# Entry
Amino acid sequence: MRSILQVRGADARIRWVDVGDFVKAGTVLASVRPGEYEDRVRAAEADLTKAQAAEEARKLSFERVSVLYAEASATKPEYDDSKAQFDEAVGQVSAAKAQLSIARTQLADSVLRAPCDGWIAKRNIVVGSLVSGATPAFSLIDTHLVRASFGVPDIAMYLVHLGQQLRVGTEAAGDFTGRVTFISPSADEKTRIYSVEVTLANPGNRLKAGMIATIALSESVPRDIVAVPLAAVLRSPQNPNAFEVMVPEAHSGRYIARSRFVQLGEAYGNNVAVISGVAPGDRVITTGAGLLHDGDALQLID
# Structure
């Protein structure tokens, strides 16, 4: 590797472009020594000139033989031989042009340019290193459009369709609106969840790869629900197919923990709807509920 793009860092020092730097499309990121590739181009150009000269000579010869053959002054074998030599020369010119095109492409590829605007995610080369054609020199992340991926259970798939506009919320960058651009045709074999992707415009590059987002799918007619945090829901020790929550219950001037069976509905981010078992305003224990048993004493801190 002959050179790598140099940029000025936040400390005002000149350094090689590295992870976290933003580059524009067409920026030269790195280059290798071009001498060998320039020699190949010159050699290919010389071979093409030679092939074209041979083609012209055999073309003139074929034209003369054609005239003589038409006048019965040349034999059919002489005509066929002259035509074969001319066809061979035409083929050699085509081969020489192809070799020249390959050589020019290799010379152009000795300079690595950014294919699009984006952020450097990885750099695998240094000046002076030997790299093969299969070595990825840089990994570039294009974030002018980003995709938010989430899973949808089969019972909620009717709420999703291609082209649908959805609001995507992030704690780090705010809310965005995007369109559904992909719906998996089959569910994951383990989770039985369908993968859905929403494509979002990303003005100002506020969204970064790996950020956590929330998406709410709702019925066309809004409805009130009771929801509790997922951390508060426990699997019942008596029935592995049932769920419960722990609630504080006043008893003789003190509080004790009571288990209460609940019927769950759809999940909404980190919360889950409760169809029955908990009423609006009821308190549920969200931290350490799995450590409690029915009847354990509690101390409430308001």
Q: What stands out?
A: The longest strand covers residues 254-268. The radius of gyration is 36 Å.
